[in-house]
Specification:
Largest sheet: 9 strands, antiparallel
Helix content: 10-25%
Number of strands: 15
CATH superfamily: Aminohydrolase, N-terminal nucleophile (Ntn) domain
Structural class: alpha+beta
Number of domains: 1
Order of helices and strands: EEEHEEEHHHEEEEEEEEE
Radius of gyration: 17 Å
CATH architecture: 4-Layer Sandwich
């Protein structure tokens, strides 16, 4: 089941995306879902907490699909472990830093200690989830670098903080400022990525029992990377992330450093 889904590309791609209500939700139903996409140098974020009993009464299997165009995308299905079911506790989360909006979604359960939150001077959670507290901790570290430090130094502080937080539990996440996608896998359950290269079919389809999407790729000449907690299309060459290693994606493919 995909609780994190992401996409990174150089050029805008037309996307049709929807969340699904499936029989596998009978034992543990979602408590919220949301997604964000980056276009024209800004993020658009849509999310909601869920009254699953109401949805099941309607007897729908696929919620109304959303259509949009962008070069970066982050989606999340929430199964609440910390915090009440509410809009504030629903992913993705976002914060502004140095004139850029950063977006974050997390999969896992963390033991976030009070002193970690209290030590953060600039970024404070608005909700009460371990996920948002972890996000604020990462943003605090990036902020400490100042405006002049970019690329490689940012990646270093993100990875350092992610490794430290992963000692407290599951720390799988997607983090992006629109230009670069930072991804981390702590070893909790699973996280995969696949990089698709031209020539492409006109439409690329992928789905599991929680999400469904298609990418329209007419005349696209650059690679596309898809990231997911689960394998969404068995025809793709999925690679599992190495544990406790920050992966960086830019312009649709993995890069070693960002300058």
């Amino acid at each position: 089941m995909a609780q994190l889904v992401g996409m990174n590309a150089k050029d805008d791609i037309d996307v049709k995306f929807s969340f699904k209500v499936a029989s596998s939700f009978d034992e543990k139903t979602p408590d919220g879902w949301g997604y964000a996409f980056f276009k024209n140098n800004e993020w658009q974020i849509f999310k909601q907490s869920i009254d699953m009993e109401k949805i099941l009464r309607i007897d729908t299997k696929t919620l109304t699909p959303h259509r949009f165009s962008g070069n970066s995308f982050i989606a999340h299905v929430r199964i609440a472990s910390h915090g009440v079911v509410s809009y504030d506790n629903t992913h993705p989360f976002d914060r502004e830093l140095f004139d850029k909006i950063w977006v974050f979604a997390h999969h896992g359960r963390l033991r976030i200690y009070r002193h970690i939150i209290d030590s953060q001077e600039v970024f404070k959670p608005t909700g009460d989830t371990d996920s948002e507290a972890a996000f604020c901790s990462i943003m605090e570290d990036i902020h400490s670098l100042g405006r002049k430090d970019q690329g490689k130094e940012i990646a270093k502080v993100i990875e350092k903080r992610a490794i430290e937080l992963s000692k407290q539990g599951g720390m799988n996440f997607l983090l992006s400022n629109g230009d670069v996608m930072y991804t981390f896998y702590s070893g909790y359950r699973s996280l995969y990525y696949t990089t698709l290269r031209p020539p492409f079919e006109e439409y690329i389809h992928a789905e599991d029992d929680q999400v469904k999407f298609s990418l329209k790729t007419v005349n696209l000449e650059n690679p596309i990377t898809i990231l997911s907690s689960g394998i969404l299309n068995k025809d793709f060459d999925w690679k599992r992330f190495e544990q406790r290693t920050l992966y960086i994606f830019k312009n649709g493919e993995r890069v070693k450093h960002v300058y």
